[in-house]
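Dear support,

Our group has been running a series of protein-ligand predictions, and this particular one with S-adenosylmethionine is the one our PI (initials K.S.) wants archived with full inputs and outputs. We had some confusion internally about which version of the output was final, so please treat the block below as the authoritative record. The input we submitted was:
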Amino acid sequence: MGKSSKDKRDAYYRLAKEQGWRARSAFKLLQLDEEFDLFTGVSRVVDLCAAPGSWSQVLSRVLIKHETFGRTAWQNQESLLRQQMLGVTGQRDSQVDAGAEMTSKTETPTIVAADRSKGDVKIVAIDLQPISPLPGIVTLRADITHPATVPLLLKALDPDYDAATASKSASNPVDLVLSDGAPDVTGLHDLDMYVQSQLLFAALNLALCVLKPGGKFVAKIFRGRNVDLLFAQLKLFFTRVVVAKPRSSRASSVEAFIVCLDFRPPAAFQASLERPLGVGDTAGLAPAKAAVDVDGLAAGSPIVSEVAEVVLEDLREARDSRSTPTTSRWIAPFVACGDLSAFDSDASYKLPDDYVSLDPIQPPTAPPYKRALEMRKAAGGAYGKTTV
Ligand code: SAM
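Confirmed final output from the archive:
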């Protein structure tokens, strides 16, 4: 998160720098917690795709330092800021110049709250990119789509963990798995959606391997075609599955978060690293059967076979009890979260003339573009070395 004109356009971007968050995504997690009380009673948390680390910062500040950004503190802070904006809320881009002013002199009250965690807290953050150190967080540089990451993670949570001798219960110590994974966007819509869904399946598979019964899973999704099948699959594992859109996530973006509460896998289900969700087996349906929507969806969906059978049974039952097969998908409830009086992430705010843009909290340590910049510099700049 750099120093740019986004300061003007995006209240959360600017606010994140003022409050010391490494990315504006911190507000998404705070608003999800506000709605779903994600952190109460948890002591083992895994933050997947965590760089630059704003979600881990939230975890560290809430679970280790016991600061609260919950309903009261957060709302107070929001209203304080709004009052400073000359009493007007955000303006849509087209109206920006007539819009309200927003001061840069904000207070950032933090309240030290009662301990919401359960005993000794352990948090592991994983990303392909390095994550600068954070108090109380173990950071791992690893690929969440690789099976070797799960034992690495379990070892980070418990140094005595031994993959060879681990019992099933001992290897399911995690209360909450978060995933804010996003691939580098190519601009090719279908490809981006595909890579995003692979990341989501990787996160889910990892969660299935490490979550305790009763655990929670929260992951970023891109709302697209066939997302209902994913919801139906998740509903097999969790008592409550909700699609949530925090106010700090732009309404114009297809991004949302799937919040899965109370992990209750089917009795016969065994999470498998060898045959992870999203890779390998399809439902194994005969091609003739795949003509109908439900079977077609399932046959085209690379889901692990034990789960596939249960999902399919569920979907078939629903289909057969209705006249139209295509209505058989389970629709997850949708919740918009974050106080409605909070900043609108699609609005632009006019800043005072003396507004000073703040430096980034944590510049990227190894951004993907670093090598390109080095190569360009070595070649003598954007236009190369010129000889006359
Ligand atoms: N939640 C983070 C925060 O609050 O700072 C922001 C996450 S950012 C939107 C998405 C991250 O996903 C990137 O840092 C990227 O490196 C990571 N990522 C993408 N593919 C990954 C993979 N296969 N394994 C691990 N991390 C991955």
